[in-house]
Design goal:
It is built from 24 helices and 18 strands. The protein has 655 residues and is α/β, with parallel strands linked by helices. Helix 6 crosses helix 15 (350-371) and helix 20 (501-526) packs parallel to helix 21.
Length: 655
């Protein structure tokens, strides 16, 4: 492990201890081998003058909910050291009281809750204190004779703390262990099965002590032959099976959730291990991971439902054995091993999937390394249960709030790079869904930066490309619940007598046949979806065609007929199919300022009059169309199928 300290950057903030604390925390947090997704904590002690002119020592400690890689000054909670020094001397302190009294000792009531390790940070007599869950160190502590190995690596100047619950109990344990100790003689502290503490009056020295400790652990692992797993070649992915598993896990969870496949070479190799079921059944990398991942993953065999049922039964038995009045949480796994394929992560949002996938990746590496040291040995089930059901950790998850209406649901939108398709993607994301956005335009790869959207460049008339895009969607998100079939073109106007055969065929290919092929490819996945629904974006030209637009109007009429028949055929499978007929949607690519002005002039109108030339005298936008499409996909149309709804501000010919 190398130091990432930048002297030039650090010198710019020399003298400002809190800014230096922010900088060194960010440097620590950017290394996933040290901390991940809110793990670890840091602090700095600063002398300040209060409103009464009195000087007091304040501990600025990482606030709950912040991550070290992105933390800013406002992410640190200022707590009076005088109070912390008294709290640690109490014979006992409940979790609820610890949180209460730490908050009472804060000098800024608007700051976040202080870390559960605040009292421990306070008792360490150094300006800067760093705490990480360094993988290499934890791998060694989570192996047979872990304590002996740690002693061999670091010698007598490393304080080794047996595992106890974080919070007041840990602080009290270390307080009692360090009475009369010469802190200057210590290089740091290693908490068994938990992590590392380093400290110094200089921020850089505290950081580099951490790097040195972890570097020694990594070199020890290398010397013991505990190398990273060698990758294996990817095989063909059965995406229908992935969608089935996602449906089964969602059913256990009690709501639709996402599922993402990790079939990187290392994950495939891990899934191929002959004893993978045995070694993954021992527990997580660090106890705080259990809040995100549960104690173990599920390993799927040929019958995923049978394996999932067994996992649930074992989880309930685990709960029944160790609970002391706690309420049973959902029994769904957070990650899974799919032999010969890789691993799966489950969660209600892409953010959750990223956290689970990252933790699983580090866990797989750690388990494989620990096997070279005699076997992966996590904490005992009682200790892990205590952490999983710890009220303070559960409170963190509860802060997520009420989920959005379409949270955990997966949609495909075609023609998604602009106009109505783009608006549909944005509306779906706003409702909590994730979206695979298909378009032939190259910009589809970059116009949606958010993780909730997977941009896929593809030609809807090419069935092979569409099949590949759908498989990519399922591997990335887990399945398909909703389809907005929107892609289309408006061919050059021509009377039937003057119709160009190529223009006619191109309209048929894009405006009707491509929709049929896409629906056919999606149906097997929609059957496995949650409240599955399809919306076809059609046109006012179906109920009210005009001369010179036969290529467009006939194709759109065919698309409408396709939707009507699909509604009848797919209804017994619970799949709703509805159609909408927009008209005069002027905020799309084909309606440039010049075109609008030209058309308005042709009818003797201003642009505004032309845009609102309907019964309600209102403008129809792409987002208006998108809002109706989302309603058709949601509960509002939950008992409606085969409907055709105009969205045109009122058109006399349609009415």
């Amino acid at each position: 492990m190398k130091s990432n300290w930048n002297n030039t950057e650090a010198k710019k903030i020399k003298g400002d201890l809190l800014k230096l604390r922010v900088y060194s925390s960010n440097v620590l947090g950017r290394d996933e081998d040290l901390v991940m997704h809110g793990g670890g904590n840091t602090s700095v002690k600063i002398k300040e003058t209060n409103i009464f002119g009195e000087e007091e020592e304040i501990l600025y400690v990482k606030g709950s909910g912040w991550s070290l890689d992105t933390i800013k000054a406002e992410g640190f909670a200022p707590v009076k050291m005088s109070a912390l020094k008294k709290l640690v001397k109490l014979p006992e302190l409940s979790d609820i009281d610890m949180v209460k009294y730490q908050r009472m000792a804060m000098t800024n009531p608007n700051a976040p809750n202080p870390s559960v390790e605040t009292i421990l940070h306070g008792l360490i007599p150094y300006t800067f204190v760093d705490h990480t869950h360094a993988d290499a160190v934890v791998v060694i502590t989570n192996s047979p004779n872990g304590k002996k190995r740690i002693q061999e690596i670091y010698g007598k100047n490393m304080l080794i703390i047996p595992y106890v619950m974080p919070g007041f109990i840990l602080a009290k344990t270390i307080y009692e262990m360090t009475q009369g100790i010469d802190w200057d003689s210590l290089d740091g502290m290693i908490l068994m099965n938990h992590g590392v503490f380093t400290f110094d009056h200089d921020a850089k020295k505290a950081y580099e002590k951490m790097i040195d400790i972890v570097d020694k652990a990594e070199k020890y692992l290398k010397k013991q032959g505990a190398k990273a797993i060698k990758g294996a070649k990817k095989g063909k992915v059965d995406t229908l099976r992935l969608a089935t598993i996602r449906q089964q896990v969602s059913n256990v969870w009690g709501k639709p959730v996402l599922s993402k496949l990790d079939n990187a070479a290392a994950s495939v190799a891990f899934s191929n291990l002959s004893d993978v079921k045995k070694i993954t059944n021992r527990g997580p990398l660090t106890p705080d991971h259990i809040i995100r991942t549960k104690r173990t993953p599920v390993v799927f065999g040929k019958d995923s439902q049978k394996d999932l049922d067994k996992y649930v039964q074992e989880y309930i038995a685990y709960f029944d054995k160790y609970n002391k009045g706690e309420q049973l949480l959902d029994q769904a796994p957070r990650w899974a091993v799919l032999p010969n394929t890789g691993t799966l992560s489950f969660g209600p949002s892409p953010k959750h999937l990223t956290i689970i996938e990252d933790i699983a990746r580090h866990t797989k590496k750690a388990i494989h390394q620990a096997e070279h040291l005699g076997g992966w040995k996590a904490l005992s089930k009682p200790d892990l249960f205590e952490m999983e059901y710890w009220s303070l950790e559960q409170a963190k998850l509860a802060k997520a709030g009420k989920p959005k209406a379409m949270a955990g649901k997966i949609a495909i939108v075609t023609g998604a790079a602009s106009g109505i398709g783009k608006a549909c993607v944005e509306s779906l994301v706003a409702q909590g869904a994730v979206v695979a956005a298909f378009d032939i335009d190259n910009k589809i790869n970059s116009c949606f930066p958010q993780k909730e959207v997977l941009g896929v460049k593809c030609d809807v008339t090419n069935s092979k490309q569409m099949e590949k895009a759908i498989e990519q969607t399922v591997a990335h998100f887990g399945g398909i619940d909703m389809l907005i079939s929107n892609a289309g073109i408006f061919p050059k106007s021509a009377k039937i007598a003057d119709m160009d055969a190529k223009n006619w065929q191109r309209s048929m290919d894009i405006n009707v046949t491509s929709h049929q092929q896409l629906l056919q490819l999606c149906v097997p996945y929609l059957e496995l979806g949650f409240d599955p629904a399809v919306v076809f974006i059609v046109s006012k030209n179906v109920p009210a065609p005009g001369p010179g637009a036969s290529a467009y109007s006939v194709a759109k009429a065919g698309l409408t007929q396709l939707g009507r028949i699909a509604a009848m055929e797919l209804g017994e499978k619970g799949i709703r199919v509805n159609m909408m007929h927009p008209n005069a949607v002027f905020d799309t690519g084909i309606w440039t300022k010049e075109v609008l002005e030209s058309r308005a002039k042709h009818y003797g109108m201003t642009v505004e009059e032309y845009k609102t030339n309907n019964i309600l005298k209102t403008e129809i936008t792409s987002h208006d169309v998108a809002d109706l499409a989302i309603a058709m996909l949601g509960k509002t149309f939950g008992k409606i199928t085969g409907a055709q709804v105009p969205i045109d501000g009122g058109n006399e010919r349609v009415i």
